[in-house]
Write the structure tokens for this entry.
Amino acid sequence: MTLRASAAAAVLAATALLGLAPQAVAAPVPQPVPQPAVQPEAATAEHRAAAERAAGAPDTLATLSRFFAREGKVSPAAAQPRIEGEAVPVNHLSPDFVAGRPGASVARLEFLASRALSSDGQQAALWTARTENGWQVVNIATGDDEFRYARLGAEKLPGGTVFREPQIDAWYVAGGGRVLPLDEDGVRAVGGGGTTLGAYRARVVQAYGDKLPGSAYAEGGMAGGYAEPGPAAGVPLAAAAGAGAGALALGGAGVLLLRRRRAALA
């Protein structure tokens, strides 16, 4: 089951999982962000097609032109952004798994990502979620993390589930009762050889068991695992370690732009 985020965190229907976002950075939004509907539990062909239409829409491409030009590397007119390949599902650690709900999977679908390319070689990931206004791009993040980790996971454990633990920005692939790391943060969390699914659950229960939705921690408006107030309503969160954020308008919604570090295991 997926999380119904508030408008304050609509830009991340995914990355504010368990109410935690590492090194969260708030940015003002020029216009209100639509409140997401409950995300589907699986990425069907219909969902992928809808996400790809949203990613390739004229308004999205216009925003991408400004995004790729934000640091003066290329002009908006010369950026000529394009969408390449199919949208890929992006899973995050499930709070139901942390809570120990019977039958809960280690991860749940959070959004679909489409790869965007600029004429000068820049890459970005468009995060697309199903909102009350239909499928919309709710975030643009630099780099190609979503696609690289999907590929690394398939190579490391064919048929496994690739997922991210956003609280520590770690990526894994799970399957056959094992959780294997895909980046340096994952290695620090579970070791280079990975761990059992049971041992992984024990670790995340210890780390987040008292921070689930409805807990005193969550009700206190905490974010990022730090004893600091969370953002005010109407301000989206950037849940990427080392993120720098800015905002652009897209189709009447605020879109948060993320820069993020790379820590993949080649």
Remarks:
- The CA atoms of residues 151 and 210 lie 33 Å apart.
